[in-house]
Amino acid sequence: PKEFKAIPPKAALNNLIERKKAEIKELEGAVELLNKNLKPITQEIIEGVWTTSGKGLKEFINRLCEMFDRAEKYAYVISRDFTWSSKLAKSVKSAVRRGVSIRTIAMKGIDESNYYRAKWFASYGVKIRIFKTKAHPRIIVMDGKEVLIRLDKNPTKPKAFPFISIYSTDPSLAKIFDFYMKSLWERAEPINFEKIALALGK
């Protein structure tokens, strides 16, 4: 019969460490080889016009996040519900930290349904004003260079419904919407969250 004898703990641990070192060295070699064969990823503004239709909220939010990630100076946004997601929150916070001035126009005002989301954006430095209107496309303009438009097929419906998204970097189109958003911001009314909270019983 075979006989077994336990080796000292120190020797066992050293053997384990050596095996792990060998595994790490092998992994480093694989990563180095992979890096040589991978092309660097660069984020570029897509030329022309991009569109999507249906209930493409995820695609819309992804496009919006990409715009915030590229933003350098300012952004104008028209929103109804202050849509929130963890990905969008991260992009907004990063943009604000970089010094990007984000101005959001609330097209239905601040009420019970969007109060806390609006308050969240305001707490992270997003400036908010109100311009009440029942039907208006959601528009986002970034640095006067990019524009994202959401055309709702039923803009007064409170829940999810089909819509069309249009995105463009065409200079003339971006300039038109940039001018429009800046004009609308000047006409919009500043908000006071303390008064709104009091009115809503918050």
Describe the structure.
This protein has six helices and eight strands. Helix content is 44%, strand content 21%. The protein has helices at 9-37, 57-70, 86-97, 115-123, 171-187, 193-200; strands at 49-54, 74-79, 101-106, 127-130, 138-142, 146-152, 163-168, 189-190. The mean pLDDT is 85. The chain is elongated and about 90 Å long. The N and C termini lie far apart (80 Å). The protein is of the alpha+beta class and 202 residues long. It has an eight-stranded mixed sheet, with helices on both faces.
Secondary structure layout plus pairing:
Blueprint: H1 9-37, E1 49-54, H2 57-70, E2 74-79, H3 86-97, E3 101-106, H4 115-123, E4 127-130, E5 138-142, E6 146-152, E7 163-168, H5 171-187, E8 189-190, H6 193-200
Parallel strand pairs: 2-3, 3-4
Antiparallel strand pairs: 1-7, 2-5, 4-8, 5-6, 6-7
How many helices in DSSP terms? Answer: 6
**Oligomer state of the chains in this structure:** single chain
Mass-distribution shape: elongated
Going by helix content, strand content and strand pairing, the class is alpha+beta
Number of strands: 8
Query: Can you summarize the main beta sheet?
Result: 8 strands, mixed
Which sequence of SSEs, written as H and E, runs from N to C? HEHEHEHEEEEHEH
Level of helix content?
40-55%
Residues in β-strands, percent: 15-25%
What value does the average pLDDT take?
85
The termini sit apart by 80 Å
Rg to the nearest angstrom? 26 Å
Low-confidence stretches: none
Strand order in the sheet with the most strands: 1-7-6-5-2-3-4-8
